[in-house]
Amino acid sequence: MSATLTEAKETVRTEPSPNPEPRRRRPSRRVVLLGSAALTWLLGFLFLHGTATLALPTSELTDLHRTLNHFNSWVASNRTDNPVFLYLLSPLRTGVDAVANAFTTIFAASTTGLRLPEIGWLGTVALLGWIAWAVGNARVALLTVAVFVFFGLQGLFVEAAYTFALVLTAVLLSLCVGIPLGVLAGVSSRFQKAVTPVLDFMQILPSFVYLAPLALVFLIGPASAVIATVIYAAPPIIRLTAHGIRGIPENTREASDSLGTTGLQRLFTLQIPMAKRTIVMGINQGTMAALSMVTIAALIAAPGLGQVVVRALQSLDVGTAVNAGLSIVLMAIVLDRVTTAASERAKPKTQRRQSKLPRRLRTILLAAGFAIVLVLIQLSRTVLWAAQFPQEVNFGPDIVNGVAGASDWLQTHLSLLTETFREGMTVSLLNPFQTVLTDTPFFIIFAVLALAAYAFGGWKLTALVLGCLAAIVYLGLWGDAMATLASTLVATVIVMLLGVVFGVAMGRSKRLDNFLRPILDAGQTLPSFVYLVPFLGLFGATRFTAIVAGVIYAAPAAIKIMADGITGVSPTVVEAAVSSGSTPWQVITKVQLPMARKSLGLAANQGLIYVLAMVVVGALVGAGGLGYDVVGGFVQSSLFGKGLAAGLAIVFLGILLDRITQAAAFAAPARSHRTAKPTPNSVPTTKEA
Amino acid sequence: MNSSDISVRNLWKVFGPGGAKIPTNPELASLSSSELLARTGCVAAVRDMNFDVAKGEVFVIMGLSGSGKSTLIRCLTRLIEPTSGRVTVGNKNILEANAAELRELRRRKMSMVFQHFGLLPHRTVLDNVAYGLQIRGASKSERYARSREVIELVGLKGYEQHFPEQLSGGMQQRVGLGRALAGDPDTILFDEPFSALDPLIRRDMQAEVIRLHKDMGKTMVFVTHDLSEALKLGDRILIMRHGEAVQCGTGDELVGSPANDYIADFVSEVPRSDVLTLKWIAEAVAPGTPSDAPVLSSSTIIRDAIHTVMHSSSPVLVEEAGAITGQIDRDSILSVLRGVRAAA
User: Are the CB atoms for A641 and A649 separated by under 8 Å?
Assistant: First the structure.
């Protein structure tokens, strides 16, 4: 670090000398490596295209896939007497199933008689509204009541209640797992070191790939769905809990130690109270992750709104998909608002906006409210109209028909626009790029990626990348992986363009930032495959739909990272650049973007991960590639092995993309020191001159 | 030995890998800090420190940043674990104390006031002051009663239900002071408590500490990088540099007879007439001095003697323990005021 700094200083000093050699040498090696990678690819494609592509037709299997199929049937036949299942996995499944069942019976539907839940819709709405009020405030309580009544009006109350019950189960279990682990990671550096790579790894996996292995072990149904969701939702809770505890200022900790606190006293009087707000933010993120996963878990037969959307997507029924998708969006908004309001309440009293109600009055009102809730719950257990949402006020079919009509109209009348756009993009950009990837011999791609990896991360990264690529070949899905990679890269390029344009604009204009940021935040809370629905209505069932959805899904993250990067550039440097007469364009290209280069890398990294997740889920609306194999594995048992292999291939693809972009992002500062560091130094020089 | 409250012997704190063997290795122990860093990669923040703090004394540890003074004060209650040596508090070497004994020491014997206050932002002023009592298991009514007394003592009455961030820096430090006082410890350690405050508030707080010391007579160990603060508060001052003690003595000893050029340079800006006593400038009694000339004690600060000397027609006699030890005249006073170095 200090070496690069001194070097950078030296380059400044040697700048006037006619010998610029030390400045050029190191970047040029990277450029040479990347250039030779591009050249290898070009030559390989030109002379060898169509050979050694390792393509595997959709219905064909490799030996590995058949072995996995056998493994599947072996698990099925040995489930009852294998000790691992008998004493570990099956009890776990039974336990989770019991908890999930308890909550679904309370809120959604019982398995007996009229299939009425323990608490009918009226009681549920009242109870949830009251909880929202108790943990948050009256505004979010009203929102909760309104949204849940709206679910009823959509004709989706039972489905929404299922989804809610599963989210609740999963979040509660995630908290049981996540908070103790998070506290441990916050207190013990050794545990933190051990657990961080695991959490990082879990974060780059698309939610989709958890499902198949879990369904294999825990069968399909709510139990697997909840377990998958816990695995997906616990990491943010662990991470933020640990972060909250570690974020406590050293001097506060020391002051508490100087008074003679024991470890436990420190934990309960200092660390947990001070980390409370961050922990609640972790609960917020975990809840949003849980909703996302619970809806996707429809693929392994989790009941609820997700199932309505999946079925509608599979039959291309845009109306129903939009209706249910809308419910999911509203559910996401409610969960997000309520948990955010809860974290607001967890703020220290001085930072909180003073509430109008005095504390004691609020307690009394809450108690009175709870009495009313109990009455309504009792009512909903005894009277049918309060138990089952009245069918007379079901506007669901109207919404479905309206949307279907609108979608038809759009597709017929705007077809010139949407189809031209779609075809134009597909033919001019997507197809050629995909051909370049799928038709190039696999060993050329190996060489190209190895060179790129070596340029950014040296031998270690090269070995990792080659390992991932070899694994994909071994899994027998090279062709599909390249198709997925093509879609992912095209979408990521578009995401990066959006990220740079909007990020720079937001970084330079506080007003635009204030305006866009809430929208981007909202966009990030929505479950991934809700994004497929509107674009299915516009573009029909194609790969292109998945790519557009992926772009929209990934753009908020990339834009926010870029905006933060640009905002993070020291204002003094920008001021210095402006005062020496730079045009805005020069400030952007010569100062802000080079200095935010690390953010550029991080935005690309996050963009790729998000896009990959969506491109894979996009298999539901006609995107091919690995996602299609995974979905096929769920649907047809003969394709199970291939689906599982495709899931693994996605994992390897994800690791590969993540590692290369991370390396590129963190390799950048070495260069940005060289290019950007002289800027603040050279500006005063020009002033003097 | 009842006068010595804290006694520090051969105390070392070495940061870095393998630091434990440096104090015992005479060759390494004699290296300068830059040589040590180059040879072993270790930093000796406190090296071979020896001093005693008497009961009821205000003992100031002074040095520039990086001199190891904050490390040293933390070693006294093992907030930083010393590498070797002895720290004796009330006949007990605390370096040998186990975790429970150490907690007991921190809870009852020694409290600390920090530079950045270290208040708990989620607790009110009252709960912050009561924190130490809560930790040691005092009942709610007991700890609140005691905390209210202390809050009044540090001048924060009426602010009990405020949260730290609603208070100014000076008031926050009063809370920190109150927290340290609440447990009624024998010794209070101050780690640059006022350097984060602006000058006027700092002066108030220094006056507050002097007042509290007068009222309660607690032993205080006070770390600062501000020489005027050290001279104002300290009965004795220890000056540190590169982890070593350079000189230890009263304020006028440091100014009057600096041990080396470093100290001399350090104290050169100090207005000598404010610190030195007549002892430092007294000359032998001249034959012509009348025996009925005014007499001043040798421990009188020079500044306080100006009036008497200027209004006396003859030189002024200086006495120590009842005996006349010398005389001073206008010239000797003026030469000090002019900044000429008195022959010490």
Answer: no
Q: How far is B109 from chain A (nearest CA, A)?
A: 10
Q: Which CATH architecture has domain A157-353?
A: Orthogonal Bundle (1.10)
pLDDT at residue A28, as a whole number: 67
| CA–CA gap between residue A394 and residue A521 (Å, rounded) | 32
CA distance A111 to B221: 73
Q: What 3 state SS string does A240-251 have?
A: HHHHHHHCCCHH
Q: Are A275 and A283 in contact (CB under 8 A)?
A: no
Domain ranges of chain A: 2-9+28-62+416-688, 112-153+360-392, 157-353
Q: Is A254 on the interface with B (CB under 8 A)?
A: yes
A285: Cα within 13 Å, side-chain hemisphere? 16
Q: Hey, what amino acid is at B78?
A: R
| B132 contacts A269? CB cut-off 8 A | no
Cβ distance B106 to A259 less than 8 Å, yes or no, reads yes
Which pLDDT score, from 0 to 100, does residue A6 have? 40
Q: Residue A107 has which token pair?
A: 């809120």
Distances (CA, A) of A446 to A437, A626, B10: 11, 19, 64
- CA distances B167 to B124, B161, B182, B191, Å, are 11, 11, 19, 20
The 10s digit of each residue's pLDDT in B183-236 is 889 899 999 998 888 888 889 889 989 998 988 888 999 999 988 899 889 899
What distance in Å separates the CA atoms of residue B268 and residue B247, rounded to the nearest whole number? Answer: 15
Q: What does the DSSP 8-state code read for residue B301?
A: B
Contact B115 A251 (CB under 8 A): yes
Residue with tokens 């640009």: A566
Spell out which residues of chain A touch residue B179, defining contact as CB-CB under 8 Å: 255, 259
CB A683 within 8 A of CB A577: yes
* 3-class DSSP assignment, residue A9: helix
A596: which 2 tokens? 């935010």
Polymer length in residues for chain B: 344
Residue A199 structure tokens: 């959490």
Rounded to an integer, what distance in angstroms lies between the CA atom of residue B19 and that of residue B12?
10
Alpha helices by DSSP H, listed for A509-570, are: 510-525, 532-539, 543-568
Give Cα B328 to chain centroid, integer Å: 32
Q: Which chain B residues touch A276 with a CB distance below 8 Å?
A: 122
Which residues, given as ranges, of chain A have pLDDT below 50?
Answer: 1-25, 669-689
- Contact criterion met (CB < 8 Å) for B118 and A251: yes
- Comparing C-alpha atoms, which of B234, B269, B268 is closest to residue B248? B234
Instruction: List the end-to-end C-alpha distance of chain B, in Å, as a whole number.
Output: 33
Cβ of B132 within 8 Å of Cβ of A257? The answer is no
Question: Element (H or E) spanning B88, and its range?
Answer: strand B84-89
Inform me whether the pLDDT recorded for B58 exceeds 90: yes
Structural domains in chain B plus CATH codes: 4-267 (3.40.50.300), 272-337 (3.10.580.10)
Q: Does domain A2-9+28-62+416-688 have CATH number 1.10.3720.10?
A: yes
pLDDT (average), residues B87-99: 88
Gap between the Cα atoms of B233 and A637, Å rounded: 84
Which pTM value belongs to this model? Answer: 0.80
Q: Would you say the C-alpha torsion B190, B191, B192, B198 has a positive or negative sign?
A: negative
Burial of B114 by CB count in 10 Å (0-12 exposed, 13-18 middle, 19+ buried)?
buried
Of B103, B163, B165, the CB nearest to A262: B103
Which phi and psi angles does B245 have, rounded to 5°?
Answer: -80, 125
* Closest CB to B131 among A249, A259, A274: A259
How many Cβ contacts (< 8 angstroms) between chains A and B?
77
ipTM exceeding the 0.90 mark = no
Which residue of chain A comes nearest to B103, CA vs CA? A260
Q: Report CA torsion sign: A149, A153, A154, A157.
A: positive
